[in-house]
Write a structure and sequence with these properties.
Blueprint: H1 4-13, E1 16-21, H2 23-28, H3 38-41, H4 43-49, H5 54-59, H6 64-80, H7 86-95, E2 100-104, H8 110-113, E3 121-123, E4 127-133, H9 145-152, E5 168-171, H10 182-194, E6 200-205, H11 216-224, E7 228-232, E8 248-250, H12 255-263
Parallel strand pairs: 1-2, 1-6, 2-3, 6-7, 7-8
Antiparallel strand pairs: 4-5
Helix pairs in contact: 6-9, 7-12
The protein binds zinc ion.
């Protein structure tokens, strides 16, 4: 396997960078959907949903009024009040002068809030600042931040689909009504196609079992394109295929630790 110094050189020489970010990355940006801190932070919703974390609470049956009031509290807390962490600033430094694309499994709109270009982000599990129709038919996605602000102010109304009149819900895979963002998926595929033959680095940050779509398929891509390199904080180097050992740097640490090493200047 390569050393961290080689990994830094790959990044410096890269013509393009793909970032894959998962649940462990979102944790450092303040959102941990499995944290039991939920019960202290949202006692009212913990009681109503009988859940001990956000993930379970999002699946609890509630009235439409309560759903939107609850979702609005979450979005206010984790997205509208969000302040980018130091790791986000370090990632901005890594991507500063490079063409990049971010494939992200958190639905909290964090990269957009931190200032990354919307056209360069694919939120594979949706984005809770947008809605989907609860009919199960894809009637498009609309923005919900105005609705959220009204609910937070105590005078919100459950939004309805302009096509069929059914209630709107968050654009997330909470049930079988979820359709991924096809435009962003298309943009991501184009980015891959256009960069098949250049020096590209895939930087994997905090991707775990909650988003398998960002693990094996991405490693397969790197195997397929011989000019690509892979840098990860999520795997022991020995877990990578033999034919990737020379083209990869991996450590079992966390996104914050790896980014700090990657941006550290030599004295
Ligand atoms: Zn509809």
């Amino acid at each position: 396997m390569a050393t961290i110094e080689q990994a830094k050189n790959w990044l410096k020489a890269a013509d393009a960078i793909i970032v894959t970010a998962g649940n462990r990355y979102a944790n450092y940006e303040g959102l941990d959907i499995l944290s039991e801190g939920f019960t202290q932070e949202f006692p009212k919703w913990a009681k109503k949903t009988k859940a001990n974390n956000i993930g379970n609470a999002l699946e609890a049956p509630l009235s439409w009024e309560d759903k939107w009031a609850f979702w609005s509290d979450l979005i206010q807390r984790y997205t509208l009040s969000y302040q980018p962490s130091h790791q986000m600033e370090q990632l901005q430094a890594v991507l500063a002068d490079k063409p990049y694309f971010i494939a992200n499994s958190s639905f909290a709109h964090l990269f957009e809030q931190a200032g990354f270009a919307k056209k360069r982000i694919f939120n594979i599990f949706g984005d809770w600042t947008k809605t989907q129709c609860s009919s199960g038919i894809n009637h498009g996605n609309t923005d919900d931040l105005e609705t959220v602000k009204q609910f937070v102010a105590g005078n919100g109304k459950v939004p309805k689909c302009t096509v069929c009149g059914k209630e709107l819900e968050l654009h997330m895979p909470l049930n079988s009504n979820f359709f991924p963002d096809t435009d962003a998926n298309h943009d991501f595929r184009w980015f891959i196609t256009n960069n098949e033959k250049v020096n590209l680095v895939v930087l994997q940050l905090g991707v775990d079992v909650l988003s398998p779509q960002l693990v094996a398929p991405v490693i397969n891509l790197v195997q397929q394109f011989s000019t690509w390199h892979f840098i990860s904080c999520d795997l022991e180097a020995s877990a990578l295929p033999d034919n990737l050992q020379k083209r990869s740097y991996s450590e079992a640490s966390d996104p914050k630790e790896l980014l700090a090493k990657l941006v550290k200047e030599e004295k």
